[in-house]
Structures are given as structure tokens and as C-alpha cells.
């Protein structure tokens, strides 16, 4: 099933992302479980983490780290 289009992302405390979708939904996604290893571990640096942006219907950081759109939508909590 397709999820609505992601319009914006805002970094929040505790390595969480506020996601806003075209259907008016706002969701919180916890990135903490993803922050490990050499590549995703770079996101532990808060300045790096805060540089998240919307890219290709998903989120992406400057280093190329991304999370699949379906994971963002289905593994987040509505607010």
C-alpha cells in the first residue's frame, strides 16, 4: 500500500523526526534504532542529525543516509 507523500521533516530531541504528510497527518519517527555502525553512526552527531531533509519521498542526510518511505510511515506514531 502506498503511503501519502512526505512534505516536510523537522529534527526533534532524542533523535526523533517530525514528519508532515500531504494528507494532513503528522507523525513522529524514532531514528535511535538506526543509529549504529560507521555510516548511520554519523547521525549521533547532533549537528549532522539536524541536517535531515526530504528527498525522493523520504528523508536523507548529507552523508547519504536515508530511511525507506514505508518504514517512516508505518513505524512512526501519529501526533
TrEMBL record:
InterPro entries: DUF2442, NE0471-like_N
Gene3D superfamilies in the record: NE0471-like N-terminal domain
Any one Pfam family match given in the protein's UniProt record, by short name: DUF2442
Highest taxon of source: Bacteria
Name the UniProt record assigns to this protein: DUF2442 domain-containing protein
Protein's organism: Oribacterium parvum ACB1
